[in-house]
Amino acid sequence: ALLPYVPRVPPAALPGKLTATTFALERPCCIFDRHANASDTVWLVVAFANASSAFKNPPSRADVPPYERLPTAHSYMTLEMAAAAYACSAPSLAVLRVGGDTACGDQGGRDPCNGPLPSPGPYRVKFLVMGCHGPKAETRWSDPILLRRASSLSTINPAPAHRSSHMVVIASILASLGAVLAAAVLCAVGAEVWGSLCHRDPGTDAFARRSYRTHHIPPALPQPLPPGCRCSPPGLGCFAPRPPGPCPSK
């Protein structure tokens, strides 16, 4: 049976929705309930977009094309799950990750592998219901899915990216604000230091204003005249010898 469901990449923005080797796919719900029973399985068929029309549904599980044959067969089948996992009542994740298994080389090609996709594609996918006697139902092919391309080293510009005028203006404003803030801090610190230097202690000021008086020195007493000097008026000194005896009084 051909089901009207078309697989698609989720339209919402998701982290890693499309990478160089993987892509996210919406998980179908309530699509296979009328065409599958508990023993059936649902597969995802992945093929290159230009080879999807040539894909032939395998008659049994033993004929399922493995992941390792993708480079030569241009298609493979993966993500084998019980049909009940896509039932309406089954709790499930919102998306499937195609190409997310990096350990496919250790499986020997026997189990269905969900290995990384080898090229950007584009790819087409569809869901296929397989029973004990072969295919039972399938969905339509998806639209082409193109993966991201890895940037070549020759296309990477080693020069730094030029800044836009808006970034230059914003950087200038931030630099000016930083300079103003630094100046304000320096002024505040300088004012604080200057105020502490100019502050005077009241006790120190009182001591500085207190006058200092020297001790009183009494005038020198008159010295006795040497013997043999004649008395003379005060201030003239001795100018002639005289006989011993007291000087006559005036």
UniProtKB/TrEMBL annotation:
<feature type="transmembrane region" description="Helical">
    <location>
        <begin position="167"/>
        <end position="191"/>
    </location>
</feature>
<keyword id="KW-0472">Membrane</keyword>
<dbReference type="InterPro" id="IPR024831">
    <property type="entry name" value="Uroplakin-3"/>
</dbReference>
<protein>
    <submittedName>
        <fullName>UPK3B protein</fullName>
    </submittedName>
</protein>
<keyword id="KW-0812">Transmembrane</keyword>
<dbReference type="GO" id="GO:0016020">
    <property type="term" value="C:membrane"/>
</dbReference>
<keyword id="KW-1133">Transmembrane helix</keyword>
